[in-house]
Write a structure and sequence with these properties.
By secondary structure, the protein is α+β, with helices and mostly antiparallel strands. Among the domains are: about 110 residues, PDZ domain (Pdz3 Domain), CATH 2.30.42.10; about 80 residues, Pdz3 Domain (Roll). The chain contains ten helices and 27 strands. Strands 5-4-1-2-3-7-6 form a seven-stranded antiparallel beta sheet. Strands 8-9-10-13-12-11 form a six-stranded antiparallel beta barrel. Strands 15, 16, 17, 18, 19 and 20 form a six-stranded antiparallel beta sheet that branches.
Length: about 475
């Protein structure tokens, strides 16, 4: 065939063949990728990439939840001397959300706290058309997780994914009941891991996704392409209240920990360490040289706390708990808050650069009022004034080593950093301070960050003022 072609025709023929070969190679490469190949329905003659095979075994585990709440109408105006008026009427409101069956034998369903909070009745609609009454086992506002039970047979439950293997860019699918329309599936990727800051009072370690999540998706499933539960869809960021591509799910490891508490006690009895902590950063490490650039830096240990009894000290850097890395104050706070009371934990600490393993038995967070919120604060404060402006410092009497703090202006830089009248400064950036002249000498070097070791009412504190 080639012999009958002139040079130009032969060249065009070869280019055409190469284009066909390249196109075929691209098709083969695309269809052979693990993500798409796992989803092809091999039984179809015109097999195309599809999520349908996975969803056929997954969606039955995701349920629609309807709740009814009673709300008393505002009281009418009453005038002095007027006859007694009847009680204001009660209005019933309805709400909708989603849930996920996680134990088919026990009929256990996970949803969001805010979906069922204050509900008088809760009903669950299954994919096969059954509508069942649900019992609330327990609920936890701080993680926005609630646990329900239904009495039913032939339930489908989702297996749990291993969150340690999740990566940004992994494909995920959101299944829920947006706007009460009924079960709906959307897809996307994991946009980020370890998101926090939506509510600083809560325990947060969100998975962020761009899979469409809307009102009514709350409590629904975020699953991977193997149909395993990755997280419980919880919140979105949106100016309009509808999907903007920024949704959040509670990761399944946190869900599993909360579910254990709710099954056992009906509530989450949170443990407390009894410390103030803050994130350890590269700048702090450059100044203090503690031996790691990440972790949770202990800035205060409360007297009589579990931490004090275990021997934790201010300036200890927590880098691990129960063999899991601690990269931030949030990591430590979440681990302690979900461990439960009377639980023994092992904390990996760097003290003066040397590793140390400390065993702690956690106490009830509500049992020690002097340490309330101890694991929930980071002692990070903003300041705009010059260094120590507003703090009157003085040498200690009788030649004692250290610098006394006489007064502190409440609006000053020193106050913003946590310094109080009556404090005794003993070190700056881990260098001992014997008197005011020595402190001023250290300050004259204009270090980029100030870490003050302070004695207050017999306690050792670390105050960090950038």
């Amino acid at each position: 065939m080639m012999a009958s072609l002139n040079f130009t025709q032969a060249l065009l023929y070869k280019k055409h063949v190469r284009r066909l070969a390249l196109g075929a190679s691209l098709i083969i490469a695309v269809l052979s990728t693990p993500v798409l190949n796992a989803q092809i329905n091999a039984g179809a003659s015109n097999a195309m990439p599809s999520l349908a095979p996975m969803l056929e075994t997954t969606t039955a585990a995701v349920v629609n939840i309807s709740v009814v709440r009673s709300q008393r109408m505002p009281d009418q105006l009453r005038f002095f001397g007027s006859p007694q008026m009847p009680q204001p009427p009660v209005r019933q409101s309805r709400g909708a959300g989603s849930g996920v069956v996680v134990d088919s034998d026990e009929g256990l369903i996970i949803t969001n706290h805010h979906v069922v909070d204050g509900a008088d009745t809760i009903s669950v609609s299954l994919q096969d058309g059954r509508v069942l009454d649900a019992t609330l086992i327990g609920s936890d506002q701080r993680t926005d997780i609630a646990l329900l039970r239904i009495e039913a047979e032939r339930l489908t439950a989702l297996p749990l994914a291993d969150v340690e293997n999740l990566r940004v860019g992994d494909y995920v699918v959101a299944i829920g009941n947006p706007f009460g329309l009924g079960q709906t599936v959307t897809s996307g990727i994991i946009s980020a891991l370890g998101r926090a800051g939506l509510n600083d009072e809560n325990y947060e370690d969100f998975i962020q996704t761009d899979a469409a999540i809307n009102v009514g998706n709350s409590g629904g499933a975020l699953v991977d392409l193997q149909g395993r539960l990755v997280g419980i869809n919880t919140a979105i960021i949106s100016g309009s209240g509808t999907n903007s591509g920024v949704g959040f799910a509670v990761p399944v490891d946190m869900v599993e920990a909360v579910m254990g508490h709710l099954l056992r006690d009906g509530v989450v009895e949170r443990g407390q360490l009894g410390v103030l902590i803050r994130d350890h950063t590269a700048l702090v490490e450059e100044t203090l040289e503690l031996g790691a650039e990440r972790g949770a830096l202990v800035t205060q240990v409360f007297p009589g706390s579990a931490a004090e009894r275990a021997g934790l000290q201010a300036t200890d850097l927590v880098i691990g708990i129960n063999d899991k890395a601690v990269n931030s104050s949030r990591d430590l706070r979440n681990a302690v808050g979900l461990a439960g009371i009377e639980q023994d934990i092992k904390i990996d600490v760097l003290r003066d650069g040397a590793p140390l393993l400390i065993s702690v038995r956690l106490e009830n967070a509500s049992s020690n009022q002097s340490a309330t919120g101890g694991d929930q604060q980071t002692n990070e404060r903003s300041a705009t004034e010059s260094r120590f402006l507003g703090a009157q410092l003085q040498d200690l009497p009788d030649g004692r080593a250290g610098v006394g703090v006489a007064t502190v202006d409440p609006q000053s830089r020193a106050a913003a950093g946590g310094l109080q009248a009556g404090d005794m400064i003993t070190a700056l950036n881990r260098q001992s301070v014997d008197d005011l002249a020595e402190l001023n000498s250290l300050l004259s070097a204009q270090p980029p960050l100030l870490a003050l070791s302070v004695q207050r009412d017999g306690q050792s504190l670390l105050l960090i003022m950038p």
